[in-house]
Amino acid sequence: MTFFRNPSKEPLWKEEFSVLASDERYVTRRQFTKFLTLASLGMFVGNLWILLRSRFARARQFSSVKIAQVGEIPVRGVKLFTYPTPQDHCIMVRTGDDEYVAYSQKCTHLSCAVYYSAENDRLECPCHRGFFSIKDGSVLQGPPPRPLPQVTLVRDGSKLLATGVKGT
User: Fold this and answer.
1) Considering its fold, how many domains does the chain have in total?
2) Residues 132, 111: one domain?
3) Is the residue at 7 inside a domain?
């Protein structure tokens, strides 16, 4: 097998790809269009992947998990738990005699842990002074872009069960 075709012993690749150093810094319109097309296609596929992943994540079923006994914590008291996985930390607050609310404990800004401030009756993120309503988890102040995901609580006799997460 020979890589030389001509009698001057010039390599075949130099004949096929005659690239001049002075032309290397210029991009042709065709090259630029190819690059834009491939970059756009890559971004489209990436966005499609994110969309499909979020649709399937919403469709998943949550299991029922016992969180606490009714009356276990005092009014304006707090209980921390994990739901739906052991990595998802949540906070439950007893807001009245028969009222309980639970939210993800992860701030929607930069995922810092939120805590309940009984004197201000709100959930607070100490990292960047983000405040959330205890009633519905909506943003009251600060940089968080969206409300806290709310854990759905169901009362089953004397047990409080977590049955799902809204707003994920």
Assistant:
1) 2
2) yes
3) no
CB atoms within 10 A of CB 152: 14
Residues in the chain: 168
- Per-residue pLDDT band at 54 (split at 50, 70, 90): confident
- Please identify which residue in the block is written with the tokens 């404990």: 105
In this structure, is residue 79 part of a structural domain? yes
Give the Å distances, CA to CA, from 38 to 33, 46, 49, 160.
9, 12, 16, 52
The model's pTM:
0.67
| CATH number where 91 lies | 2.102.10.10
In angstroms, what CA-CA distances link 138 with 74, 91, 121?
24, 15, 13
Note the pLDDT of residue 61: 73
